[in-house]
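Usage

Read records sequentially. Each one opens with the input sequence:
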Amino acid sequence: MTFAPVGTELPVLEVRPSEISLFRFSAVTWNPHRIHYDLPYAATEGYPGVLVHGHLHGCWLLATVRRWLGGAGRVERFSWQNRHFAVPGDVLTVTGRVVEADRWTRTVELQETNQDGVVCAPGRAVVRLTEEEGRP
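and closes with the structure output:
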């Protein structure tokens, strides 16, 4: 990751959520909303399957940044928006690119899209590099 100039692409993360992984995320986050684990209930709201949790989209975006950073820095700010639902069987691809850089920080724009190219969750992170990585 040395210096990571503007334009640096982060390694892509591909995720394929399953009904089991969504049920488990509901359990560990104490989220009782049936739309995430009860298919007949999700269908009553017009969805083709149980829904990926909004916060799970954020987790995957953040995981992409943290995996890229390794031990070379820390995330100082992070935000995302949920724009489109995802369901089990979708192939979700998270990409990122450095859009701003100074000596100690990098700003990364992130995007999670489904297999049809629909943006499910855009995001943005500001990371602070360690002293060693920040040296020119």
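Summary fields computed downstream for this record:
- The chain has a mean pLDDT of 93.
- The longest helix spans residues 54-69.
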